[in-house]
Amino acid sequence: MSVPVLGAVSRVSSLVRRRVPTCVLTHAGPPTADDGHAVDRHVPIASLTKVVTGTALIRMAAAGVLALDDPLERWLPAVPATGITLLDLARHASGLPRLPPGPLPGRDPYAAFDLPALHALLPRLDTLAVRPPGSEEEYSNFGYAILGAALTAAAGTTYEELASAYVLRPLDITEMTAQPAPERCLQAPGLFGGSRRPWTMDGAILPAGGLWATPRAVADLVVRLLVERRLGDPAPSWIRTGSMVWHNGATRLASLFAGAQDDGSWVVVHRLNAEPEDTDRLGVTLLRQDHRPD
Q: What is the DSSP code (8-state) at residue 160?
């Protein structure tokens, strides 16, 4: 891809291969961690963050803090009347483009996309939308950044605090955060024994893809949201394909697949330095392979 996005991973030279640490957790047995990965180290979970954001939206609506059909301008007054609702944003049906407008540097594309940069774009949303809201789905990191801003405005708190209050604490998940302790983080290995610097994603893009978690915390999230349904039906952030409910995510250095079948089987795959398509393929294969017969 010519533009760096959540989900894009740089290609590795065919002559020198970087290590690909891999961690796999499933319902079928104990977790496996290869080539230096670990179940108890924080890693980027990229767009799986959207599941937390979407679940927070549903929980806040159930608590009466907001309504799913609230127009965006109710919580972000700088937004002109666009017809975009909070639920449109959660469903990727807002009509907004995939990425924030403007150049995104390849080395650290979201570093400059902070909250002031996001708020500067809000008065222009009517001109930035590429189609009417609700007319068609188009995956939008930009839309989820705006949804996160609306939720924090409605809650009167930070994104991390509302994610904890409405999602993580009710699920008893503690190993998921935007600011993990450096000594608890697992970085992608570089060439010749070094490590590769992750993208900066704790600014406005955080609700779209900035959380870190241990793989065992991701597994807890999947089981408690999709299998045990502790917080009710899955939020609209999840993707349903037949009997499988899933989500993936990727940055330049990390890729993730997480999903469950209606029969309760589930899988989480996290890899560093891997092509996201390969991670998705592995996750789907394992989930179908371990699918419990009726």
A: H
Dihedral sign, CA of 81, 123, 179, 36? Answer: positive
Please give the single-letter amino acid code of residue 4.
P
Q: Indicate if the pLDDT at residue 236 is higher than 80.
A: yes
Q: What is the DSSP string of 16-39?
A: SPPP--EEEEETTEEEEEETT--T
pLDDT of residue 156: 98
CA-closest candidate to residue 24, choices 286, 290, 293, 291: 286
Q: What is the pTM of this model?
A: 0.92
Structure tokens belonging to residue 214: 């241990």
Q: Of 173, 226, 178, which Cα lies nearest the Cα of 44?
A: 178
User: 3-class SS at 134?
Assistant: coil
What are the pLDDT digits (tens) for 120-177?
A: 999 999 999 999 999 899 999 999 999 999 999 999 999 999 999 999 999 999 999 9
What are the DSSP calls for 107-127, one per residue? SSTTTT--HHHHHHHGGGHHH
